[in-house]
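Lecture 7, part B: from sequences to assemblies.

Below are the input chains for today's worked example.
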Amino acid sequence: MKYSSKGLIFSLFISLIFTFDSYAQQQRPNIIVFLVDDMGWQDTSVPFWTETTPLNKRYHTPNMERLAKEGMKFTNAYATPVCTPSRISMLTGMNAAHHKVTNWTSPQNNVSSDNDDEQFLPAKWNYSGLSPKADVPNTIYATPFPQLLKDAGYFTIHVGKAHWASIGTVGASPYNLGFMVNIGGHAAGHPQSYLAQDFYGNKPGKNTLQSVPDLEEYYGTETFLTEALTLEALKTLEAPIRNKQPFYLNMAHYAIHSPIQADERFYQKYIDAGLPPVEAKYASLIEGMDKSLGDIMDYLKAEKAEQNTVIIFMSDNGGLSLVPPRAGIAHTQNLPLKAGKGSVNEGGIREPMIVKWPGVVKPSAVASQYVIIEDFFPTILEMAGLKSYKTQQETDGRSFVPVLKNAGFKDDQRALYWHTPNKWVPQDGPGINYKSAIRQGDWKLIYNMRDGSTELYNLKDDIGEQKNQTDAHPEKVRALATKLGIQLKAWDAPMPLVKQSGKAVAMPGQAGN
Amino acid sequence: MKYSSKGLIFSLFISLIFTFDSYAQQQRPNIIVFLVDDMGWQDTSVPFWTETTPLNKRYHTPNMERLAKEGMKFTNAYATPVCTPSRISMLTGMNAAHHKVTNWTSPQNNVSSDNDDEQFLPAKWNYSGLSPKADVPNTIYATPFPQLLKDAGYFTIHVGKAHWASIGTVGASPYNLGFMVNIGGHAAGHPQSYLAQDFYGNKPGKNTLQSVPDLEEYYGTETFLTEALTLEALKTLEAPIRNKQPFYLNMAHYAIHSPIQADERFYQKYIDAGLPPVEAKYASLIEGMDKSLGDIMDYLKAEKAEQNTVIIFMSDNGGLSLVPPRAGIAHTQNLPLKAGKGSVNEGGIREPMIVKWPGVVKPSAVASQYVIIEDFFPTILEMAGLKSYKTQQETDGRSFVPVLKNAGFKDDQRALYWHTPNKWVPQDGPGINYKSAIRQGDWKLIYNMRDGSTELYNLKDDIGEQKNQTDAHPEKVRALATKLGIQLKAWDAPMPLVKQSGKAVAMPGQAGN
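Predicted structure of the full complex, as structure tokens:
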């Protein structure tokens, strides 16, 4: 719109349009996705299960409690078993089996992070990650939602872990994924160090691809990475709030991913509580992250932006349950859930999710409708008022705005899918390596690519996936396996190749299974 | 302004105000400072002297020629002898003797870059650089103009070399200096490498404090640093242009600072022209930088932002004249000017400056009025329409908008000042180490701190500073030395200490000189 050299009447007319347009624009909410890395469903004092667990008592997350009080807790929220697939599903609205980035991307270009296997040759997955441009080898070419928000006038900010694509590819830079600001995000999936004393991994001669960029002002101070990223994020909000430009902030903490280092601000109290050092460090990473959430909430309040800002709290996969580095018995770190990061069992995929949306979501609401990480794409665009937009990809996610508006919303016909045709770690574990899964209603089926076997669980009574009902409900197994197979086929999901035959592993529900 | 739940009439009234306000806002020009590092006055095919020199014939800068055709060439534009002082003078509007960052800042905190000297102990200068916050040791606490632009609604972007302060201090981050976006800028003053094949210095285990951040998408490609920064800069302009938000872009190339590496896109032609390899590399760095300027001009034209965008081309100090790394005879690389980077002689401080301001500056204009780098501060704020603003510092620069509006503008009473109470390199050279200088009209006086001696030149007839007129014009020497001394005293300019006496070197024009 231009106003130059027009008469007053025309100007008045235009100004009316402009005013209402401005009004509409100003009403568009700010949106913050507060994405934690590797945080388990129970790594919080907020109880997400029907009862308060020992883990809920162990961890202190007062700001998550505050957020849950002001918003809606999702007790059945899902991501994928590892980080890059979740992050790409979120940005593209595609299921991981569809975008084919089914494992974490190596920061190095054209290097698959898959481990070698005796039985299988690797599946053809997109191991270089997400690309906003065509014809980049081993990437999914798709339109990320921050680009759509940016095009619609949002001020789009990424702070923290990116990990959407490998170095040497266009997706390595958040600036190519629709973000107007990037602080600290690049091709790596974890920090070399959380410590400013270590220059976050940038000490001369000591760098790796995990050295965190952009934070030189803190070098040599005692500023923990989580705190530094928070301070940086708050700085970026100043201008859009003052300019009344709606913003999208992707606040993507490196915490609580390994290396499990002590956040000294909180470490001692967990030692005093009797935790072994590594678990005290883990707990300190959680509480440091929680403080960041509180600082952001406080800032919004102080800046009078609280009432017009959506906050979506989420984790990208389950809590790490490998021992070491964790203490205790492997795969018990997310109890009552089975296993952890890397697994299609609940411990690997169920997430602590909370959404605050003043004026829309009722305080202290609890939703049991299952949702999944690719749902963020249409939800966020709907929140921002984008009704029609063009994307390179066909999206799979569904907006959960109806759930936000009605905590009782129920759809138990929808099916959710997980797909890991990869060898994430050298040793298989519960739900770990070469597994697919489907959930519909309370039923969940896991498909094991190694031998075509299945596990069937009813999550309503058996959230811990302890009672395999495959033999008791063959018709349910058949139905879910067929549905899973049809969907994976429709997405042309990558499958590993059997070394002996050179052929792809059969999809679930196919003849032979 | 808020528009919610108001009646139509009030809304109309408000909308009128808002419209005119918007109109005014949209008229505010975009401003680009295209700042080259270490580029000499003659490192271009644009003749800045009264005649075309052999150096003008050597270098190819077609886009600078184009810019000069569309704007105003300043034949008497000055910076300081080295980079950080210039960059801080530009951002703060203060003379270097006043802000006391009189030498380049080490990327390491609390480390002076001064060399040891037999005669002198170091002056107390602000060797940690610029700080936007109080009480940071060894820094100048000042308000940078990008902060004022940001506060006034500009979208402020920094791309490339920052070098305003040391690691571990708040000024190390452009995000603290009023920039809303920073790509590639940090505490270092040069790149470890211009080559994407070297990851711009970020190869694992090979990093230094000069490793360039933020450019992982180019790693392993053939994208020269100059090109990568240009591509990044253009991306940042997309949103503000579409949103009609005025922007300030600080396009601060690392080129043409050492390491003198070949920009392969242009290298061979200079070899073919018979230049020795190092000089062919140097020329290729220049032409690569010039291509960047052209790409930005092309982009603005394509985006229809050309007519509302000011471009200010500038260098931060004179061309390097040390041999090695340069070829030939030392201190002849900026002929007809004497010496080069580090010197208060013209070769160290006179810069190729061009300003394009459509609708204000006449095409192919030439201004001979002398201006200096601290003048950028008030000039840019005036261009942006900022009439009153608060700064922490008292500023010294003068707006050159009157010159832009009238190429014939003349003020030969104003005095310009340079002050280097530092030992920049281990060996003194012409105008290098422990020198101050003043220019008023055509007269220039250089004060040598080592022995209190002076050199007097008349630049009108003696641009090469070959004919010392100290003996011929004692009254001019006395007047200029006094003026210089009074000003340095008023600024409390740092002076080196004489080892023997422990006392500060006398200011020029004082008893004893």
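Note for the exam: Confidence is low (pLDDT under 50) at residues 1-25 of chain B. Keep this in mind when comparing with the next example.
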